[in-house]
Amino acid sequence: MGFRTGISERQRRFGEELRRVRDAAGISALEIGEALGVKGPNISHTEAGRLGLNLERLNAWLNICKVTDPEYRAGLIAMSESAGKGWWTEFKHDVTRSALDLAEAEASATALENYESLLVPGLLQTKAYGEVIQGYNEKKVEFRHERHKVLTGTNAPTYRAVIHEAALHMMYGGPTVMREQLNHLIEMSRLPNVTIQILPFDCTTYASNDTPFLLIRGTHARLDTVLLEHPHGSDFIGAPEVVTTFDRKFDRLRGLALPPLSAATSESSPAQRDSLGLIQHIRYKVQGR
Fold first, then answer.
1. Domain co-membership, 150 together with 232
2. Which domain holds residue 177?
3. Angle at which helices 9-25 and 70-81 pack, to 10 degrees?
4. Exposed, middle or buried, 187 (CB in 10 Å: 0-12/13-18/19+)?
5. In a domain, 4, yes or no
């Protein structure tokens, strides 16, 4: 089998997990290579995602490293055997590699937890709002629209979003676009698997709320990933200590944010201070523009 010319995030993470369990077991690359009947350099290439690993050798690797958790093993096997193909494959010439990796990760996620500071989260954007954000690039807008289907498809993941109030005041596309976007947030909150909270301007506690991030929950906690986006691309981070840090950060943001939009009601009581009431207040102000 030749080296891969393009390594997906799933393939890179699979190799990273193999290295992690090998290091935890205190076994060298040479030792595990001898046990599997492959040359030492091939172990390094496998851990870097450049080479795959068949099921027999994967199970042998996990047995040697004394990995006994059945759910974790099943998750690694699924990562190894996945062809990596889906609806996103049609866009491989239209969007970045990291965008394709995100779509693939969302398709297999058990839950998604998202914090945004200046933008409405991608999975909650209307087409008109998305067009502005994507610079009216038709293929990128279509790609994002396809991503939205993960929230309504079979075995849809749980999705929880905390959005800073600042994102709701940004008039991207103008008042008409933002009114539609605010209405869409209310409609999306009616989905049983979607929870939306707003972090208000008058929050007096700082919780590192200047850094947007997405927690992608895998089939096992050890396979969770943090996605950090920046002007030069995206970073998928699976290091347990980093995931734990952002896990705690998201819980803190949820605790500081207003109570979530209720799927049971369409109106909020004036006396009730919650995310729905704040969105309605902002929508009223936008209507006056």
1. yes
2. 87-287
3. 140
4. middle
5. no
The closest of 118, 99, 112 to 191, measured between CA atoms, is 112
How does pLDDT run across 170-212, given as a tens digit for each residue?
999 999 999 999 999 999 999 999 999 999 999 999 887 789 9
% residues pLDDT > 70 (the chain): 95
Full-model pTM: 0.93
| CATH code, domain carrying 142 | 3.30.870.10
**Longest alpha-carbon distance in the chain:** 72
Angle, alpha carbons 174-176-179 (nearest 5°):
105
Q: Roughly what angle, to the nearest 10 degrees, separates helices 40-47 and 29-36?
A: 110
Question: What average pLDDT is seen over the chain?
Answer: 93
Contact present, 232 and 247 (Cβ < 8 Å): no
Looking at the predicted structure, is the pLDDT value of residue 57 above 70?
yes
Angle 29-36/55-64 helices, nearest 10 degrees?
130
CA distance 118 to 144: 18
Strand partners of residue 194: 159
